[in-house]
Amino acid sequence: MNQNGHRLVNMLAYLGILFFLPLVFEPQSKIGRFHANQGLVLLLLGVAANILFHFLPLLGGLFAWLLNVVLLVAIVYGMYHAFYERMKPLPIIGKIVLIS
Question: End-to-end alpha-carbon separation of the chain, Å?
Fold first, then answer.
């Protein structure tokens, strides 16, 4: 895969269930594993928060909307750094390591 292909695969890692793509297409890449981890953390955080807000309707509404906006900003942030092949952790949650 060429250089631009790696960039695209790393960027797609931030789009929900596609977090595993860098692990499949570039299994030995440290940058690929990093972005796959960041994408998985975002996916798990988004799913957990949306489940929580679903079952606690008093917390829902504005908080759920605000969290989804924050997650969208984190996705764009991660994709930006994946495009430039930087291993910059996401703010606040970026230190969580699930895939090594």
Answer: 22
Q: Tell whether 94 is covered by a domain.
A: no
**pLDDT attached to residue 23:** 93
Identify the three-state secondary structure at position 17.
Answer: helix
* Residue 29 included in any domain: yes
Structure-token pair, residue 65: 């909307």
Q: What is the pLDDT of residue 38?
A: 95
Predicted structure pTM score: 0.87
User: Does 49 fall in a domain?
Assistant: yes
